[in-house]
What does this fold into?
Amino acid sequence: MTPMLEIAGLEKNFGDVQVLRSIDLKVARGELVFVIGPSGSGKSTMLRCCNRLEEPTSGSIFIDGRNIMNALSADLNRLRLQTGMVFQGFHLYPHMTVLKNVMLAQTKALKRPKAEAETRAMDMLGRVGLAHKAKAMPTELSGGQQQRVAIARALALDPKVMLFDEPTSALDPELVGSVLKVMKDLNAEGMTMVVVSHEMGFAREAADRVVFMDGGVVVEQGTPDQVFGNPQQDRTRAFLSRVTGAE
Ligand SMILES: Nc1ncnc2c1ncn2[C@@H]1O[C@H](COP(=O)(O)OP(=O)(O)OP(=O)(O)O)[C@@H](O)[C@H]1O
Ligand SMILES: [Mg+2]
It folds into this structure.
C-alpha cells in the first residue's frame, strides 16, 4: 500500500551547512512514528520540509502518493493543509474565542461556509475534550488546553497526516498527560502521525516505530523495544544514556 507520507532522498542546506543528508522515511497509513535525536540533529527541519514550510534543497516528499515537490506554488497553500502541524507554542489568536480560532483557517483557507466550519470546529473541540470551552478566550485556558485547541484547529482542516514538533515541551509537567492522551486517541482512531518529542514513556506506549536522528541522518530505527531496549548503534546508545540519565 502507498505510504501516507514518504520522504525520499531529502537534503536540506542552510547556506553551506548541510542540515539534512539524504533522509529516507516511509510512514504507513495509521502509523505513529516517533522521532528522537540531539538538539540540532535536524528533526524540526525534517518536519518543516514535509509541508514545504522549509524548502528542501533536494529530494521528494510524497503525501498519499503525490510528490508535493512538483506542486505549483499556487497549489502550495492547499497542499499544506494536508499536513496538520502542531508546534511547541500554540499560536492561538488571543483576541478570538477558542471556537473562532478553530474556525478561522477553515473559512479562510478551505473556504468552508461559516455554519459548516462551526459544526466541524465543535466536533473537533469535542474530540479533544474542550467543547465546553468553545466560548472561552485562549488566555482563560491552561497551556495543555491551549495545545489541545491547537490540535483541534489542525484536525478541523482534515489533514492526511499530523506532524507534532515537541508538542508538550512548553507545558508544566501536570498538563502533559492530557495532551498525550489526545494524541494517543487520535492515533488509535487511525490518524497517521510523526511526533518529535522527549516523552519516551509515550513512545513506549503509543509509537509503532522510533527513529533516531543525528547529524542530519537517520541513524537507526525500529520498534520502541528495539531502539530503547537494544539499540544497535553507538550514537543511539550514547544519546539514550544521556537523556535517560538526565531524567
Ligand atoms: N533557518 C535556519 N537557518 C540556518 N540554520 C538553521 C535554520 N534552521 C535550522 N538551522 C540549523 O539546522 C540544524 C538543525 O536544526 P533543527 O531545528 O532542525 O534541529 P532539531 O533536531 O529540531 O533541534 P532541537 O532538538 O533543538 O529542536 C541546526 O544546526 C540549526 O542551527
Ligand atoms: Mg526542533
Remarks:
- Residues 43-44, 165 surround magnesium ion (ligand 2) (CB under 6 Å).
- The CA atoms of residues 34 and 210 lie 5 Å apart.
